Amino acid sequence: QVQLVESGGGLVQAGGSLRLSCAASGSTVSINAMGWYRQAPGKQRELVAAISSGGSTNYADSVKGRFTISRDNAKNTVYLQMNSLKPEDTAVYYCNAGHYSDYDEVYYGWDYWGKGTLVTVSS
Question: Which of 7, 52, 80, 87 is positioned for an S-S bond with 56, CB 3.0–4.6 A?
Fold first, then answer.
């Protein structure tokens, strides 16, 4: 089992920045990648960004150029730096652990989830 704990959400004005953190513990040797998903009210959960242990990354088109995912392998921690935030970024953000395929450059999220952290962007 892998446990994930997020932190860093909050309320910010449009154009502002926030940084989310997610610390993984437990059977972390079983995973080679981590990602961030978000779910806005009335919408499906969507992948925002993912990063492999080797540093390969994926981003949703809606956040490219504004969000940056990074990780500290020694600390089993992944970060999501969110800049130029927009009201449509408002959502609960969930940390996820899974597998990144270098072959097809796709992140496969497994059923390991944090409890989520709320990000609210006011206009």
Answer: 52
Cα Rg of the chain (Å, integer): 14
3-state secondary structure of 4: strand
**Mind listing the pLDDT tens digit for each residue in 54-83?**
899 999 999 999 999 999 988 999 999 999
- Pairing state between β 91-101 and 117-122: antiparallel
Q: Which residues pair with 113 in a beta bridge?
A: 96
What are residue 97's DSSP bridge partners? 34, 112
Is 5 buried (19+), middle (13-18) or exposed (0-12) by CB count in 10 A? middle
Q: Are 96 and 109 in contact (CB under 8 A)?
A: yes
Residues 9-55 have pLDDT tens digits of 999 999 999 999 999 998 888 888 999 999 999 999 999 999 999 89
CA–CA separation, 21 and 8 (whole Å): 6
**Interatomic CA distance for residues 2 and 9, integer angstroms:** 21
Q: C-alpha angle with apex 47: 84 to 61, nearest 5 degrees?
A: 50
Question: Cβ neighbours of residue 27 under 8 Å, at least 6 residues apart?
Answer: 1, 2
